[in-house]
Design goal:
The chain is of the alpha+beta class. The chain has a single domain, classed as Jelly Rolls, CATH 2.60.120. The protein is 20% helix and 32% strand. The chain has three helices and ten strands. The strands form two sheets. Strands 1-2-8-5-10-4-3 form a seven-stranded antiparallel β-sheet, with helices on one face. A hairpin with a 4-residue loop joins strand 1 and strand 2. The protein is globular. The model has no long low-confidence stretch (mean pLDDT 96).
Length: 228
């Protein structure tokens, strides 16, 4: 297991990268495959399928618990929290063809304005050219969305949405500058604040298969940091 702390953008926001985090990738993919087919995503803008992992999914939930145990020192050290609580965990697959994307799915996004809302993304598939990118909104200079600037970010994003082509963002464009990228290496875990603007790196021609053994499979975990 190899951890690395990166700082991205003018905000020097922390992004933790941990390689070979589980050292049992085939078994985790088997877990996900056994839970397929995943339901179509509902309730947010994720462009694909998500299978929420519940406590009753005993083996899969044990994987989530172990991942959080391993990640705990990195979360505490990089994000200055004393503890955290699990909000949600899922196995996820991007399956939406570019032509079907809604305007909000074509641009970088944020998960929460709360700086203690922390995302953990575990890359489970060998899908070359994919990963996660971090961005700055050019018109406002926003990299990190908080309660003070969220209205400005949203208003600008809505104004620009009509001009966005029906494709996944890849690198920088007229409205967003890519400030960092992390390659989606199998068994790599990345940890970052959910208020940091980010997007999946989805290369042209990537398989949109819904089969966990073929498509872009990740585990997406969200935790709420605690202080004091």
């Amino acid at each position: 297991m190899t951890p690395e702390l990166r700082r991205v953008g003018a905000s020097q926001s922390p992004v933790v990268v941990v390689d070979d985090v589980s050292e049992r990738l085939p078994a985790i993919v088997d877990l996900a495959a056994a839970m397929a087919p995943f339901p179509r995503n509902a309730g947010n803008y994720y462009p694909g399928l998500r299978r929420i992992i519940h406590e009753r999914d005993e083996t899969a939930f044990a994987y989530v618990t172990e991942t959080l145990r391993v990640a705990a020192p990195f979360i505490g050290g990089a994000f200055d929290v004393d503890g955290f609580d699990l909000i949600e965990a899922s196995f996820s697959m991007i399956t939406a063809p570019p032509a079907t994307l809604l305007p909000a799915q074509r641009a970088p996004h944020f998960d929460s304005t709360d700086p203690d809302y922390i995302a953990l993304l575990h890359f489970l598939s060998d899908t070359p050219g994919t990963g996660t990118a971090f961005h700055r909104q050019r018109a406002t200079g926003i990299e990190v969305v908080d309660e003070a600037n969220v209205a400005s970010f949203v208003a600008t994003a809505k104004q620009e949405a009509a001009a966005r082509p029906a494709t996944y963002i890849n690198g920088s464009d007229a409205h967003f500058e890519q400030i960092a990228a992390v390659e989606g290496v199998p068994d790599r875990l990345i940890i970052y604040r959910g208020n940091l603007l980010h997007s999946g790196i989805i290369p042209p021609g990537m398989s949109m298969s819904a089969d966990p053994r073929i498509g872009r499979l990740t585990a997406n975990l969200f935790v709420q940091g605690r202080r004091g």
